[in-house]
Amino acid sequence: MSSGSYYVPAHSAWPILGVLAVGSMMVGTGIWMVHGSAAWLSGIGLLAVMLVMAGWFRDVIHESMSGLYDDQMDRSFRWGMGWFIFSELMFFAAFFGALFYVRTFALPWLDGEGAKGVTALLWPDFTASWPLMNPPDASISGPKEVLSPWQLPLANTLLLVSSSITLTVAHEGLKMGYRRTARNWLAGTVGLGVCFLTLQGIEYYEAWHHLGLTLQAGVYGGTFFLLTGFHGLHVTIGTLILAVMLVRVIRGHFSTEHHFAFEAAAWYWHFVDAVWIGLFLFVYVF
């Protein structure tokens, strides 16, 4: 319904359905990773998340194309997207913080250095190093080898940097009314996102089956998959969002002045690209 010049959306079940879907997916994933069961719950949750996203996107697109949104709604969307990206920034900051803590404090303490070096009494033969190939607890096996940053990780870095460029070209084309340019360069961006995910899948296979780099390979394996895995999830989501934007561009949605959905997708994608640069430097290189 409309109240004055400000659009008030009708009651929607999507938020609570989204919470239930994400909750089911995460609970199932947690049980699956810890106990090796309940993979079915994780799969159902993932399917539910996709259905909720599709339905919610459909409703918002219909509202936008019906001309229900005004400048106030545009500002609300911009603030909402800004705070969402800030929350994502804090999400990754926590994981980078964990990596920093392990490398800068925990490992040196276990090697007898620093204010809490007395913890070296736990494993007197331990020598701190990173990547940690030999965990202090002999019951935990570290990785046999680590991935070279100058092969698949470098290729993925070039792919994501290139995708930011192609997306910027598509955005500029849309702002100038060159819809074919926007369509073609956006399609290229989606393609680069798919290529990134494909290479990361190959990288994970090599790491898991040939290098012994698994979630059980000590703190290095845990932090590696925690950071790269969540980033890969964000790339997957970003690629799906850009694919929706591509369909909308093909169907004639957006104008040169009003296309915040496209802008929001671009903000998200550029953020994901920036996070990858940090990952490449601090997970693979240093």
From TrEMBL:
Coiled-coil region(s): none
GO molecular function list: cytochrome-c oxidase activity
Gene Ontology CC terms, in alphabetical order: plasma membrane
Gene3D superfamilies, per the entry: 1.10.287.70, Cytochrome c oxidase, subunit III, four-helix bundle (1.20.120.80)
UniProt-recorded name of the protein: cytochrome-c oxidase
Membrane topology: Multi-pass membrane protein
Pfam families assigned: COX3 (PF00510)
Entry's family note: Belongs to the cytochrome c oxidase subunit 3 family.
Keywords, in A-Z order: Membrane, Translocase, Transmembrane, Transmembrane helix
InterPro entries: Cyt_c/ubiquinol_Oxase_su3, Cyt_c_oxase_su3_dom, Cyt_c_oxidase-like_su3, Cyt_c_oxidase_su3-like_sf, Cyt_c_oxidase_su3_a-hlx
Residue intervals passing through the bilayer: 12-32, 38-58, 79-102, 182-202, 222-247, 267-285
Domain of life: Bacteria
Gene Ontology terms describing biological process: aerobic electron transport chain
Domain (Heme-copper oxidase subunit III family profile) ranges: 2-286
EC number: 7.1.1.9
SUPFAM superfamilies tied to this protein: Cytochrome c oxidase subunit III-like
Subcellular location: Cell membrane; Membrane
UniProt entry tagged with the keyword Transmembrane helix: yes
Organism of derivation: Cobetia crustatorum
